Amino acid sequence: MKKILLIMDRKVLSDALLSEMDDPSKFVFYTEYNYIHAQISAVVFLPDTILMEIPESQKISPDQCLDICDEIRSNHPECKILLLTPEGNQRACELTIKAVQEGRVDDFLYYDTSMKYLVSKLRTM
Fold first, then answer.
1. Cα–Cα nearest to 15, from 1, 4, 31
2. Cβ neighbours of residue 46 under 8 Å, at least 6 residues apart?
3. pTM value?
């Protein structure tokens, strides 16, 4: 069973993602809505994959999101990290692409991706 940690700002997004899973018995999800607790959740839950939303709300900056990814990666290097990035935030896009190139995260998707594509990406990571 694949364990996926969702680090999200928006509950509606995580709910939509969970409802889109056609075979939830193959996955175990845990959702963390507080970015301050994301590292602890990763240590406790030990996910195979993390989907982290870089929030448009600016509750936390793209740099801070990547710092969290670095911390998680240092403690749990085998965990795959997928960023969900707002395509309208140029700084977030640039940082995200650089983070993938540097191996800080494994991949990313823009917010405007379809839910089906997001689900398929999580299945393949």
1. 31
2. 3, 76, 79
3. 0.93
- Decide if 53 contacts 84 (C-beta within 8 A): yes
Cβ–Cβ under 8 Å, residues 67 and 42 = no
Give residues with Cβ within 8 angstroms of 121, minimum separation 6. 82, 107, 109
Closest residue by Cα to residue 81 from 22, 28, 25, 125: 125
Measured in degrees and rounded to the nearest 5, phi and psi for residue 74 equal -70, -30
Predicted confidence at residue 18, as pLDDT, reads: 84
CA angle at 61 for the pair 57 and 64, rounded to the nearest 5° = 140
Structural contact between residues 106 and 82, judged by C-beta atoms closer than 8 angstroms? yes
Q: Which residues of the chain have pLDDT under 50?
A: none
Q: Which two tokens stand for residue 125?
A: 């990571």
Residue 10, both tokens: 């928006």
Q: By the 8 A CB rule, do 83 and 55 touch? A: no
DSSP per residue, 94-115? HHHHHHHHHTSSSEEEETTS-H
